[in-house]
Amino acid sequence: MIDRRAFLAAAAAATAGTLAGCAKKSPAKSDGSGSAGKPITLGFSQVGSESGWRAANTQSVKDSAKAAGINLKFSDAQQKQENQISAIRSYIAQKVDVISFSPVVVTGWDTVLKEAKAAGIPVILTDRSVETSDPSLYVTLVGSDFESEGERAAHLLEKVLAGHTGTVKIAQLEGTTGAAPAIERAKGFAKIMKASHPDWKIIASQSGDFTRAGGKQVMAAFLQAHPDIEVLFAHNDDMAIGAIQSIQAAGKAPGKDIKIISCDGVHDGFVAMSKGQINAIVECNPLLGPQLMDTVKTVHAGKGSTLPRWIKTQESDYTADQAAAALPSRKY
Ligand code: GYE
């Protein structure tokens, strides 16, 4: 479990020290330029290209770095932790000003983060969190509250099932094993089940790695083993879209015979929802670039200690009846 709040007190003090050190090393103006008017160089290690959410997030990071006058070094880790660690090491070797990454899984980062700290390069987490016993290893996290997204998914299911009594058989398509959004969305959903819905049963739960292909394959196996599934909770839209294909192939109607709740709110998710195939979506906003670039500038200017430990993203919930109206104004 990741208890970010537990870090807060110790972190404020520890982080202030670390960042003050970095700031002394390279004082900067807060307009995207460094001390001698040189642009800030940001090394960014992206998780991969697994989903529509990720594509929108990558575009947002690239566009906003450009708009902010920040020199971006970008790499795609293809969902492999070892690739992210190599990318971070290469940014350290290149002496970038700031490093940011979206950690594919939560554990196993301390060694490389200590290397960044020793080199005086501040690290900003984006999108996903890490588990570490040393809060001074990163400045802040810019991203969503995934546990609350899981809770919101359960509350959306309450709406979708309105009037239903008795047992509800639920299948869960989990995100990448060990990734913060997979762990925390499952946790938030389970929390509401435990508190309010003794009749809801998760009868199958497995990772589909946040991809369409994964969602399709795992859902086909679920349906073979459990033809009586009534609800699918997919940790992202892409897996839900893959699962829809398997549900149809099994001769069932997605959104009717099997109710579907997913997370993200990407364009294709909204299209499926406007057709009634997905019943409700918990929005998870991938457009983190502008906030990340502001944070990079603040940190590079030596003011990281003024930032909260977690800069949370604002999001909404949507049900199928709202999908068609919302679709034209969706930005990703
Ligand atoms: O929900 C999924 C993506 O970390 C919030 O990663 C992100 C998740 C998102 O692959 O589609």
TrEMBL record:
Keywords: Signal. It is found in: Cell envelope. SUPFAM superfamilies: Periplasmic binding protein-like I. Its main location: other. Signal peptide: none annotated. The keyword Signal applies. Residues 44-286 form the Periplasmic binding protein domain. Belongs to the bacterial solute-binding protein 2 family. This is ABC transporter substrate-binding protein. It comes from Actinacidiphila epipremni.
